[in-house]
Structures are given as structure tokens and as C-alpha cells.
């Protein structure tokens, strides 16, 4: 009965819907746990990484600024300041030139980096003292006549320098104008011009000044990227700013507003700004703050491939669960439908006698149908809900672990990049320290006197406090050309223990590093050597040895992010190491290695992210608990459904037993609408049939006759369908066999051109009618185009030739089928129409920016600008707007095949493709197609 079939379907749909809902709920819980875990890990890693990056940047920045500040201190020592304190404007030119040459040599010996300082102003006290500007990298000074400190005092400009001495500042135009007072009578026009030129040179520039200490004003004009030198080249998505104590931005990489550091703690995120992605670090010695603004990855996982991957797997699980549950339940309810059908058809008439035949017990006695309904439902929920949840949970765990490992690798690279900059900066700082000490006149005098007078003790003449950067040294030593110690900063009463082998002493003018130096504590250490040429006209030399402390190359780490490193030189000798485990230590670290700029060193980092291990353990426990709860819930629901469904079956059983015992049957009242209701309805119907046998016999005979007729019709239709299918199979084979016969006959008669044409036609037909995927290898598409060209060359008498310029490695990419032949056909029909010879078609391919570029070019008649513009306009329309002649526009014969190819590419690749057309009248046409190569089945490389 149709009504019963409708009721039967409703129960299956309900159970399938319940299975899908349970599966959806379990997948939602699993995804929620996974995404919460991913966000938690990502956010925690970002915060911790940001803190370590901020600490490392603070060290890098402090090191860079100390380097520049030390340079300012050195420039105020007598070696440089005496020239300007003397009355050089009253001296003889020859004397001035000699002293200026010595000053220039000392400055060049400092080897000042233009990456830090661009120019230096030396401004004398009054008109009798010289004022110069030196551009770093230049071999001469620029005189500044009319500019001296007295003039700056009279113009009130020096007030700015007094306020901001020894601080990194930047003065805008308005600030300089506000401080400048040119009304003083002491300022001559020449002085005013000199002041204007000086202010223009420092306006909006980063500068550092000593505020005219020791009667000499020194102004360093710094490189705009001085602060940027503390950052690696790959800075990520964060922005970095340097702000002074008046909240003025000295330098920034941010495109927008810079958060104020006032609400940021020295090691806490800026809570006052309401943005947990902003961190501040203080540079107290310079009254500066570093402000780091980065978007925390709290919602990063939802924008990454994790979200799409989890959703895709969950969707596939839901679809699979719905299909399995549907067909499974149909199998489960098959006995109910068979019993219902048997009960409807068991009333028979034989010689006008009513006969009720029994239902075979073997119908449900064996195999799957012998399992109880409750166990079947439990099995169903295990297969469609519990098992997928468990498998997906394991897959999610693996996938998320892989992503977290990837994040950790990125974090290790970022931390390593910042640390590399710090190590390179510290190495440069020590080299500059060696340069600054080497030009010290005090050392020069000490060495000269010590080499000429061995009876005097000159150790007391050396004031260590005047040399910046010595705080990072264990000790330093002065050596003669034979390695004998002349002076040591420690144990000066026993200088002999500091003597070194002459092999360490190289004849070079720049500082150099030695990795295998054995210090006085019998430890192999790294050391800096610097040759010093004495300025006593004796051509004597000595060497300066600097031994840094073990902690000089220390890198930033935290409680949650532990770090280790090992530095080696170009020969593989160890330079420095800290907490570096050769075997990985307590757990497998995330490694990163890099060369150190400015040196021949190489550094290897190890980072341990403890938080990841802890959170991963919690995550696994949550997944196991979730899977267990899903299994118990699914089993409970299965038992409940089984009890609800078997209740009417028990009632039917009791009614049938009563009918057998009492001798008469009664109908069973049941208001359900499911498969069991179908059995009950059939049972009630059977009772009615027993009371109306005579009339029902006639109806059953008529129904049997009609059924026989329908069966005959169905049999006839089946035979016709099989015949049609056989014909469909025979026709292609018949055609190929016929072509092969023609090919063999042509070969026997020596008609090789006909043979080639027939072979090309056969291959072309096979490719054209082949069923399967929409894509094919580019190599097969090219072969198809070549077969087409072979036939067309024969047809047009060789009026054109073709060339394929496609590398072998590109032929293994998948492309959409039938995209070349229509374009080549256009070239032949419209490009070479009426040509007897000279036509050429070139098909080429290349890989460009991650997409496959395919060009089809001919040297035919081309198109005029109007036709080309119309064709481009047609291609720019959406596919639904290609109405052709229906919108009143005449279809362009040049573009029919082209539009077809474009439409198919557009539908298959969507926004990932592009097609460009270039044509010049009488010079040919070129069509360029760009398709993606990273999507599976749409340009991807075959396995």
C-alpha cells in the first residue's frame, strides 16, 4: 500500500536525522575542543614569543644605542677634541693641515659605520676655533665658517641641546623655529647663514649631541634606520616604534597611530590601551620606550587552513554517516517490509477454499537479520557516530599537532632572527670598542714610554673608566709584535701569563676574531685582536687583545620558552655556546640555524616551548573524554530507540498468540506510522481478507494478470536497453577497426601521408569521446592538438606549420580538456584564410607566479582594434550575459570557440584563471591563458 510505504520511509528518515544530529553534535564538540586548543596555543605562543622578542629587541636596541653613545664619548676625548679647542683659526695653515690630517686618520681608524652615523658636526666654542662637518665615508672635512657655540648660544638654539644632551632626539621644523632667535646683535649675516644651514642639516633627522661639554659641541646625525638595525629583515606582521619620555615618536614601522607607552609596564602588555597585542620595553639610560604592536593570534586559527580542514572533514563525516545510516536502516527494516508483504499476499483460494500459507522461518533466521534489533541499532550508532568521532578525534589531534609544530617552527625562526641580530650587534660592538681603544692617545703614550723606558711603571697612567664597552670584557691585554704581554687589565703584576703565540697576530688594520684562544684560565675562548701602529715615527706596532665575558652573546629566553645556542666560526671551531644540547636534551627542540652578518660565524639555536607540551596533554585528555561520552550517549540512545520500536512488536506477538489459543483473530489497534505499523496494518488487512475471500480472489487474479503484463513490458524494455547499450559499445570499436583497416591498406600501398592522417584521426577520436575526469595531462592535450594539426595540414596542403615549446616538466600538469584545439582552429580558419603558405602557429607554456601560463600565437591576419575590443568586451561579460544573437548583437565568428574555452575555464577554475588576447592587424594574434597549478585536479602535478 502506498500509505504504508510512506510511513515506512518516515521512520528511516527519523533515525537517519537522529544519527546526523548526533554526528553533528559530536563533530561540533570535537571541532570546538580543537579550535579552543589551537587558539589557546596560538595566543599563548604569541604572548610568550612577543615577550621574548621584546626582551631581545631591548637588548639589541640597547647595544646599538650604546655603540653610538660610546662613539660620542670617544669623540670628546683629547684625541679628537684638542684639535677644536685649540685656536686653529689663528694658527699657520701648514700646522692646521697636519693636525687635521691626524684627526682624519683617527676618525678613519674608528671605522664608523654609515649604517649608524651619516655625518658628524664638530663645532668650536668661538670664532677662533674651527668648526667642521664630516660625512661618514668621506676622506675630507667640510669647514663651517661662521658657526660656533657662542653664536648658537646667542640664537638660543643651544637651549635645545642643553635640554636633550646625550639623548636621541628629532627636531621638527617648527620646534627649531620656536627655539631660534636671530634678533641678537651678536649674530652677523654670515653667522645667520651658517646657523640656517646647520639647522637645515639636522631638521627632522635623528641626532645625538653632547650639549657643548669640554668647550666642543659634537652633533651626530644618525642614520634613519639606526633603530631598524636592531630588527631582522623579516619582521613579521608586528610594528615597532621608539618613543621618548615626552611621547614623541622617533622612529616607527607602523602605518597608523603608535600606542602610548605610558600605560604599558616594563614587561606587561599595554592593558590601558585595551589591546593585549601591544608590549612596551624601556631603555632607561636613554629615556626611550620600545613599543611593539602586533595582532595576537586569538582568532588566527579561524582564518587559517585549520578551520577549513576541520569543517571539510566534518562535512564529509556527516555525508558519509547519512548515507551509511540510510542504507543500513533499509537493511534493518527489510524483514519488516518482507513480513508485511508476505502477510498481505498469504490469503489464497484453492478450489474455492481459503488457504493461509505460513511465512518461511529462514527469512530472518540467519546472518545479519538474526541479530536483535537493539544490537543492530547499537552497531549503527557505533559505526556512524562513535567510530567516526574516534577516528576524527585522532585525525584532528594529528592535524592540530602538525599545525602547532609549524607555529613553533615559525616562532623559533622569529626568535632566532632577532637573536642573530643581537649577536651580530654585540660582535660589532666589541670590534668598535677595539677600534676606539686603539686610537687612544693615552694608550699611544703608554706604549711609547713603556717601549723606551722599562724602569718606570706606567700602569697607573691608564684610566679604564674612560674606555666605553669594557664592562663586557673579562680582561684586555696589550701585546708586542712577538706576543709578549706589555699590559693587562687584571693581574698586572704578572703580565707574563697573558703572553700569546705569534700565530694569533695578523698584519691587518681591522679587528679580527680568534676562536681557539686559550685564556689565562686554560679555557678555549674567543678573542678580538687589533693591531695598533704607534704614532712615534718608529713604525713600531703593538696588538690589543680583548677577551669578552662568557655572557656577552647571551640571547633572550623566558620560563616557558627556553633557548640554547652554539656559535661556530668558518672553520667549524666553537665560538660560544649556552644551554646547547647535542642530543636534544629534555625533549626534542625546535631548531633554527643562520649565518651571522658581518662575520664568518654560524649560529644554531634550540628552542623548547614547554607550554605546548602541557597544553597538548590536556587536549588529548579532553578528546578521549569526549569520545567516551559520545560512545556512551550513542549506546544509550540506541537502547532507548530499540525499546520504543520493539514495544508494538511484542503487542503484535501477544495478539497472534491469543488468536492461536482462542481460535479466532482480532485486529490490533496501533496509531504509529512506521515499519512496524506496516506489519500491524498488514495483519489487520489479512484479517479482513479472511472474511472477504471470494471477492478478494477475483481481485487477486486480475491483479496477477496485470502484474504479468507489466513484467512482460519491463522485460521487453530491458532487452531494448541492453541492445542499445551493445550498439553504443560496438560503434566506437567498429569505427576504430575501420580506421585501422584503412591505415593498414594505406601502409601496404605506401600512402604514408594517408596513414599518418588516419592515425591522427583515430587518436583524436579516442581523446574526444573518452570518458572520465574533466582534466587531462598537458602532454595529452598537446598530443590531441598535434593530431588535429596533422589532419589540418593535410587538408590545407601544408599552408602553415606548428611549433610546440613546452618543457617536459610542465607536461605533467593537469589542465582542462579541449582548451587548445578550438584556439588552434580559430588560428587556421580566421588567421590563415586564403593563405597558400607562410602560416605558423606556436604553442608554448611556462610556470609564472604559481600559475601555468599557456600561449597560442599565430602570425595570421590578426584583428583590427574594433574587432579586438569587441571580443575582449564579450569575454569580460559574465557567462550568464552571453546571450549571443538574442540581445541583438551579432556573434563574432572569431570568438565562438574562444568564448567556449573561456566559459569552460571560468566555470572550472573560477577566479583562479585569466585569459588575455592581443592582436595586431596583419601581424597575428596571441591568446594567453593562466590557470592555477596548486589545486588537486585543476592544474596540480600528478603523483
UniProtKB/TrEMBL annotation:
Subcellular location: Cell membrane
InterPro entries in the cross-refs: Bact_2-comp_sensor_kinase, HAMP_dom, HATPase_C_sf, HATPase_dom, Sig_transdc_His_kin_internal
Name of the protein described by the UniProt record: Sensor histidine kinase
Organism this protein belongs to: Cohnella zeiphila
Recorded GO CC terms: plasma membrane
Pfam families hit by this protein: HATPase_c, His_kinase
GO-annotated molecular function: phosphorelay sensor kinase activity
Entry keyword set: Cell membrane, Kinase, Membrane, Phosphoprotein, Transferase, Transmembrane, Transmembrane helix
Record field: transmembrane: 309-329, 377-397, 622-643
Signal peptide: none
Location of the HAMP domain: 643-695
Topology of this chain in the membrane: Multi-pass membrane protein
Chief location: membrane
Amino acid at each position: 500500500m502506498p500509505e504504508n510505504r510512506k510511513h515506512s520511509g518516515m521512520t528511516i528518515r527519523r533515525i537517519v536525522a537522529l544519527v546526523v544530529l548526533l554526528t553533528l553534535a559530536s563533530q561540533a564538540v570535537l571541532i570546538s575542543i580543537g579550535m579552543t586548543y589551537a587558539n589557546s596555543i596560538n595566543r599563548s605562543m604569541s604572548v610568550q614569543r612577543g615577550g621574548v622578542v621584546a626582551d631581545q629587541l631591548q637588548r639589541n636596541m640597547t647595544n646599538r644605542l650604546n655603540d653610538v653613545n660610546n662613539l660620542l664619548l670617544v669623540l670628546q676625548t683629547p684625541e679628537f677634541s684638542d684639535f677644536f679647542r685649540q685656536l686653529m683659526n689663528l694658527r699657520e695653515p701648514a700646522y692646521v693641515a697636519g693636525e687635521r690630517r691626524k684627526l682624519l686618520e683617527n676618525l678613519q681608524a674608528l671605522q664608523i659605520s654609515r649604517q649608524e652615523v651619516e655625518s658628524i658636526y664638530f663645532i668650536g666654542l668661538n670664532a677662533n676655533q674651527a668648526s667642521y662637518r664630516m660625512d661618514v665615508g668621506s676622506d675630507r672635512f667640510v669647514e663651517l665658517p661662521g658657526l660656533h657655540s657662542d653664536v648658537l648660544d646667542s640664537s638660543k638654539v643651544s637651549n635645545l641641546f642643553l635640554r636633550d644632551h646625550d639623548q636621541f632626539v628629532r627636531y621638527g621644523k617648527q620646534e627649531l623655529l620656536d627655539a631660534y632667535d636671530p634678533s641678537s646683535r651678536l649674530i652677523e649675516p654670515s653667522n645667520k647663514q651658517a646657523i640656517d644651514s646647520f639647522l637645515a642639516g639636522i631638521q627632522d633627522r635623528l641626532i645625538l649631541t653632547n650639549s657643548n661639554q669640554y668647550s666642543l659641541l659634537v652633533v651626530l646625525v644618525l642614520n634613519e634606520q639606526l633603530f631598524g638595525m636592531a630588527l631582522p629583515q623579516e619582521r613579521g606582521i608586528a610594528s615597532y616604534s621608539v618613543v621618548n619620555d615626552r611621547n614623541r615618536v622617533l622612529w616607527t614601522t607602523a602605518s597608523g597611530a603608535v600606542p602610548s607607552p605610558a600605560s604599558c609596564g616594563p614587561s606587561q602588555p599595554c592593558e590601558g590601551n585595551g589591546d593585549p597585542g601591544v608590549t612596551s620595553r624601556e631603555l632607561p639610560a636613554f629615556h626611550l620606550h620600545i613599543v611593539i604592536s602586533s595582532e595576537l593570534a586569538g582568532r588566527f586559527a579561524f582564518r587559517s587552513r585549520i578551520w577549513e580542514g576541520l569543517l571539510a572533514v566534518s562535512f564529509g563525516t556527516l555525508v558519509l554517516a547519512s548515507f551509511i545510516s540510510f542504507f543500513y536502516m533499509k537493511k534493518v527494516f527489510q524483514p519488516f517490509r518482507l513480513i508485511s508483504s508476505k502477510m498481505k499476499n498469504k490469503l489464497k483460494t484453492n478450489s474455492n477454499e481459503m488457504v493461509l500459507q505460513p511465512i518461511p522461518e529462514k527469512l530472518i533466521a540467519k546472518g545479519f537479520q538474526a541479530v536483535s534489533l537493539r544490537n543492530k541499532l547499537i552497531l549503527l550508532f557505533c559505526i556512524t557516530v562513535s567510530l567516526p568521532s574516534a577516528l576524527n578525534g585522532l585525525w584532528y589531534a594529528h592535524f592540530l599537532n602538525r599545525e602547532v609544530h609549524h607555529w613553533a617552527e615559525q616562532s623559533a625562526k622569529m626568535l632566532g632572527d632577532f637573536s642573530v641580530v643581537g649577536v651580530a650587534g654585540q660582535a660589532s660592538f666589541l670590534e668598535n670598542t677595539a677600534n676606539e681603544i686603539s686610537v687612544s692617545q693615552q694608550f699611544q703614550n703608554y706604549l711609547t714610554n713603556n717601549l723606551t723606558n722599562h724602569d718606570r711603571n706606567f700602569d697607573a697612567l691608564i684610566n679604564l673608566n674612560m674606555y666605553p664597552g669594557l664592562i663586557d670584557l673579562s680582561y684586555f691585554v696589550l701585546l708586542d709584535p712577538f706576543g709578549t704581554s706589555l699590559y693587562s687589565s687584571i693581574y698586572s703584576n704578572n703580565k707574563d701569563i697573558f703572553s700569546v703565540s705569534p700565530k694569533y697576530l695578523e698584519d691587518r688594520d681591522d679587528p679580527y676574531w680568534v676562536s681557539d684562544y686559550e685564556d689565562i684560565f686554560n679555557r678555549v675562548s674567543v678573542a678580538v685582536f687589533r693591531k695598533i701602529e704607534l704614532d712615534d715615527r718608529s713604525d713600531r706596532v703593538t696588538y690589543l687583545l680583548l677577551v669578552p665575558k662568557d655572557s656577552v652573546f647571551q640571547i633572550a629566553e623566558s620560563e616557558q620558552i627556553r633557548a640554547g645556542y652554539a656559535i661556530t666560526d668558518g672553520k667549524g671551531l666553537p665560538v660560544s655556546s649556552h644551554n646547547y644540547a647535542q642530543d636534544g636534551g629534555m625533549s626534542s627542540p625546535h631548531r633554527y640555524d643562520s649565518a651571522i652578518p658581518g662575520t664568518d660565524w654560524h649560529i644554531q639555536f634550540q628552542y623548547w616551548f614547554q607550554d605546548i607540551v602541557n597544553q597538548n596533554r590536556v587536549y588529548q585528555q579532553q578528546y578521549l573524554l569526549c569520545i567516551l561520552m559520545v560512545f556512551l550517549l550513542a549506546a544509550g540512545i540506541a537502547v532507548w530507540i530499540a525499546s520504543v520500536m520493539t514495544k508494538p512488536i511484542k503487542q503484535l506477538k501477544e495478539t497472534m498468540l491469543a488468536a492461536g489459543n482462542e481460535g479466532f483473530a482480532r485486529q490490533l489497534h496501533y496509531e504509529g506510522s512506521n515499519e512496524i505499523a506496516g506489519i500491524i496494518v498488514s495483519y489487520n488487512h489479512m484479517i479482513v481478507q479472511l472474511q472477504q475471500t471470494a471477492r478478494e480472489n477475483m481481485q487477486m487474479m486480475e491483479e496477477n494478470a496485470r502484474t504479468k503484463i507489466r513484467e512482460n513490458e519491463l522485460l521487453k524494455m530491458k532487452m531494448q536497453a541492453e541492445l542499445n547499450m551493445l550498439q553504443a559499445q560496438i560503434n566506437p570499436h567498429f569505427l576504430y577497426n575501420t580506421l585501422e583497416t584503412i591505415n593498414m591498406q594505406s601502409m601496404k600501398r605506401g600512402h604514408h601521408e594517408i596513414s599518418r592522417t588516419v592515425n591522427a584521426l583515430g587518436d583524436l577520436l579516442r581523446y574526444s569521446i573518452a570518458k572520465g575526469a574533466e582534466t587531462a595531462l598537458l602532454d595529452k592535450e598537446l598530443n590531441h592538438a598535434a593530431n588535429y594539426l596533422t589532419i589540418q595540414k593535410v587538408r590545407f596542403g601544408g599552408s602553415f606549420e606548428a611549433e610546440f615549446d613546452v618543457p617536459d616538466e610542465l607536461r605533467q600538469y593537469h589542465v582542462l580538456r579541449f582548451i587548445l584545439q578550438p584556439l588552434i582552429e580559430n588560428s587556421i580558419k580566421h588567421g590563415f584564410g586564403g593563405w597558400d603558405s607562410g602560416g605558423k602557429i606556436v604553442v608554448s607554456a611556462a610556470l609564472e607566479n604559481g600559475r601555468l601560463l599557456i600561449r597560442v600565437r599565430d602570425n595570421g591576419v590578426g584583428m583590427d582594434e574594433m574587432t579586438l575590443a569587441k571580443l575582449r568586451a564579450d569575454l569580460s561579460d559574465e557567462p550568464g550575459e552571453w546571450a549571443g544573437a538574442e540581445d541583438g548583437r551579432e556573434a563574432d565568428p572569431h570568438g565562438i570557440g574562444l568564448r567556449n574555452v573561456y566559459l569552460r575555464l571560468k566555470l572550472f577554475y573560477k577566479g583562479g584563471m585569466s585569459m588575455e588576447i592581443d592582436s595586431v592587424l596583419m601581424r597575428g594574434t596571441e591568446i594567453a591563458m593562466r590557470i592555477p597549478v596548486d589545486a588537486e585536479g585543476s592544474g596540480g602535478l600528478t603523483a
